């Protein structure tokens, strides 16, 4: 379809990538966000090869490579410092045809803003309602203004205000069962090798270091706890010192060198797989459509896949906007439901929902030469829209 005007609500990773893809398809794009200043949620993200391939397709291969970390190996250690395994990720990269890029969210956001045109993002515009008829869709904003177009993309995140409109009812997020702390620190040999993703596991917890650009590590800690306890946060460093007492020296070094006021503390939630992703001329995209636990590292890449598939459906389906969005839903619904389900299952396994299963995983890590891990990651990547 030609000459469409598309309204995108949400200027996060999914919304910006959608805006870029739609612009390149020749469509008029209006992009709105409720915030007055764009600041990414979270410190960094592991952008796996399926997401990177879409960015390559959009002409951003050099840009994403320049801000991505060099991650050549992956290693698991016990919480006391015993090396469980250490293997190269190059067989994975060769198999899927693209390197993954751990990347600071600020760097990624700036890259996408530059590609879309930061001046084209309209901030301080909270979309509070949607109306549509046979020929158009209208977004209504809190300040009383409206805009009308042919398609509306609801990329307004995990707390989506537009998801209830598409579903016809509200949807509560589900607490996955653990708290995550994350941030950035300078890369040093005392913490981890500069091109390795290092993960310490034990006591149903994790501590992880992942290389990103400019000689930095993206770190995270995971601790399972009840929702009631999770909501009672204390002083951040003291909380981590208590939760990771007795862990290996690099973990203790990390706790001491992180900056508490620049470290995020997040109660991890997901949503149930949705029965529908579209309503007429309105499509859910990114976390509004499939908020998942981060345990597969696929949240960002799935939003980027959404953008690619949605744009292709609009470009290649000539019957109607609604028909194009039905094709988008058919293409994405099972894929993202599978990601949500597998991420939830992995979160449970990592964080001791069944302690015997978690202990079995710890034992299996000692005998994993990387084959099983790489097979799992490769399968997720190769079933994406660009293979």
From TrEMBL:
The keyword Ribonucleoprotein does not apply. Pfam families: FAD_binding_3. Pathway: Purine metabolism; urate degradation. It catalyses: urate + NADH + O2 + H(+) = 5-hydroxyisourate + NAD(+) + H2O. Its EC number is 1.14.13.113. Its cofactor is FAD. Residues 4-342 form the FAD-binding domain. Keywords: FAD, Flavoprotein, Monooxygenase, NAD, Oxidoreductase, Purine metabolism. PANTHER family: MONOOXYGENASE (PTHR13789), PUTATIVE (AFU_ORTHOLOGUE AFUA_6G14510)-RELATED (PTHR13789:SF309). This is FAD-dependent urate hydroxylase. It comes from Stenomitos frigidus AS-A4.
């Amino acid at each position: 379809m030609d000459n469409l005007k598309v309204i995108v609500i949400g200027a996060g990773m999914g919304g910006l990538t959608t805006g870029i893809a739609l612009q390149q398809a020749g469509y008029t794009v209006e992009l709105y966000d409720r915030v007055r200043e764009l600041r990414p949620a979270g410190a960094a993200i592991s952008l796996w090869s399926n997401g990177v391939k879409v960015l390559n397709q959009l002409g951003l291969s050099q840009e994403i490579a320049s801000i991505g970390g060099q991650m050549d190996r992956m290693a698991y250690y016990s919480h006391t410092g015993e090396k469980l395994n250490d293997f190269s990720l190059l067989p994975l990269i060769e198999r899927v045809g693209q390197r993954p890029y751990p990347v600071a969210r600020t760097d990624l956001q700036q890259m996408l803003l530059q590609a879309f045109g930061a001046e084209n993002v309209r901030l301080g515009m909270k979309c509070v309602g949607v109306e549509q008829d046979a020929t158009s869709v209208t977004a209504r904003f809190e300040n009383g203004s409206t805009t009308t177009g042919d398609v509306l993309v609801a990329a307004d995140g995990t707390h989506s205000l537009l998801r209830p409109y598409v579903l016809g009812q509200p949807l509560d997020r589900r607490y996955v069962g653990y708290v995550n702390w994350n941030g950035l620190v300078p890369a040093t040999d005392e913490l981890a090798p500069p091109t390795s993703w290092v993960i310490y596991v034990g006591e149903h917890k994790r501590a992880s270091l992942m290389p990103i650009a400019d000689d930095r590590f993206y770190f995270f800690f995971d601790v399972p706890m009840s929702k009631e306890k999770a909501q009672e946060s204390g002083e951040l460093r003291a909380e981590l010192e208590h939760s990771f007492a007795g862990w290996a020296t690099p973990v203790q070094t990390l706790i001491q060198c992180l900056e508490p006021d620049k470290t995020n503390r997040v109660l991890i939630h997901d949503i149930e797989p949705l029965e529908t992703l579209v309503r007429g001329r309105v499509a859910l995209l990114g976390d509004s459509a499939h908020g998942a636990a981060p345990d597969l590292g696929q949240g960002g890449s799935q939003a980027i896949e959404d953008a690619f598939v949605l744009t292709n459906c609009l470009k290649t389906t000539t019957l109607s906007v609604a028909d194009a969005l039905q094709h988008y839903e058919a293409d994405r619904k099972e894929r993202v439901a599978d990601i949500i389900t597998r991420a939830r299952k992995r979160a449970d396994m990592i964080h001791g929902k069944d302690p015997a299963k978690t202990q079995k995983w710890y034992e299996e890590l000692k005998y994993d030469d990387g084959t099983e891990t790489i097979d799992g990651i490769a399968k997720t990547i190769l079933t994406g829209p660009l293979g």
